[in-house]
Amino acid sequence: MDPRKFVLVAISVALLLGLARSFEYRAEDLTSEEKLWDLYERWRSHHTVSRSLTEKQARFNVFKENVKHIHKVNQKDKPYKLKLNSFADMTNHEFVKHFGGSKVSHYRMLHGPRSKDNHGCDGGMMEQAFQFIEQVGGLTTETNYPYEAKDESCNSAKLNAAAVQIDGYEMVPENDENALMKAAANQPIAIAIDAGGKDLQFYSEGVFTGDCGTELNHGVALVGYGSTLDGTKYWIVKNSWGTEWGEQGFIRMQRGVDAEEGICGIAMDACYPVKSTSTNKKKQGSPAAGKDEL
């Protein structure tokens, strides 16, 4: 199958699966306080969100403002849409605090020695995570040692059951989307982005072109790139906020923006692990050769 068609089919399937489980609302639900309360209760039931009586009013007020923002954005002619996901009664400040941070998603990478730049489940530098994997002899599988999003003591037996070893890592040249594209043509890339902003919090589908800064605070995986039928270029990014967010846990982010750092700082800090062989040892700092654009 043509790679472009494969990407489009995969994204279409993801969208259909997501729509089957998503929470929908009508414009009429926003026309009165009573209807908004009913919408909030239906949303809580759908996402099994429990709130105490003392915090319920405050959470409803946040929910109400978020619903209005989502509805307003979706009425505009933007290439992406937002939805009422499970984060809808959280302020953006709360959301970034809880789900931001330069998190490397795999348990083993989070359990490296703590330092000023490596903070366990509070997030850590991607480069230090790769260094740790190299030092301890490898990385176990997600099945063997699943990520549980909490700080606790390491399970040494599981931790030492290495399934993959690396010999180091390479940095992608900073603020260079062409170099990033060449690297992403050969393997997933660990990148950092600015995950602030309500539009990212409630992203549902489409090519994200929304406002965001360059204060890198969240680690994600760049897994590919492509372009829409109308020629809009995008990156394919795998997030760690669950499959109910975005396109089954993925987001397409605009590629080739005017700013050299890329949208949300996507080209500012990127690296990937390397595995050398006796006959083919890569030089650090040299991105792998690229493939034709999808």
Biggest sheet layout: 8 strands, mixed
Radius of gyration, taken over Cα atoms and rounded to an integer in Å: 20 Å
Widest beta sheet: strand line-up: 1-4-7-6-5-3-8-2
CATH topology of the largest domain: Cathepsin B, Chain A
CATH hierarchy class name of the largest domain: Alpha Beta
Summed up, the domain count is 2
Sequence stretches where pLDDT stays below 50 over 5 or more residues: 1-10, 12-20, 102-124, 278-294
Query: Mean of residue pLDDT?
Result: 81
User: SSE string, helix = H, strand = E?
Assistant: HHHEHHHHEHEHEEEEE
Count of discrete alpha- or pi-helical segments spanning 4 or more residues? 9
The percent range for strand residues is: 5-15%
Gross morphology: globular
Give a concise summary:
The chain has 294 residues and is an alpha+beta fold. The chain has nine helices and eight strands. It has two domains: 3-99 and 188-270, Cathepsin B, Chain A; 107-162, no CATH class.
Blueprint of the fold:
Layout: H1 3-21, H2 33-47, H3 53-74, E1 80-82, H4 92-99, H5 107-110, H6 126-136, H7 156-159, E2 168-171, H8 177-184, E3 189-193, H9 198-201, E4 203-208, E5 218-227, E6 233-238, E7 250-254, E8 270-274
Parallel strand pairs: 4-7
Antiparallel strand pairs: 1-4, 2-8, 3-5, 3-8, 5-6, 6-7
